Amino acid sequence: MNKTVPETENGKVIYQPEFYYESLSEDLKKRITGLSYKEDCPIPYDDLRHVGVLYVNFKGNVSSGDIICNKAIAQDLVEIFYELYQADYQIEQIRLVDEYGADDELSMRDNNTSCFNYRTIAGTDKISMHGRGLAIDINPFFNPYVTYRDGSQHVSPAGAEAYVDRSQPFAYKIDENDLCYKLFLAHGFSWGGNWNSLKDYQHFEKEIDD
Question: 3-state secondary structure string, the chain?
Answer without folding.
Answer: CCCCCCCCCCCCEEEECCEEEEECCHHHHHHHECCCECCCCCCCHHHEEEEEEEEECCCCCEEEEEEEEEHHHHHHHHHHHHHHHHCCCECCEECCHHHHCCCHHHHHHCCEEECCCCCECCCCCCECCCCCCCEEECCCCCCCEEEEECCEEEEECCCCHHHCCCCCCCCCCCCCCCHHHHHHHHCCCEEHHHCCCCEECCEEECCCCC
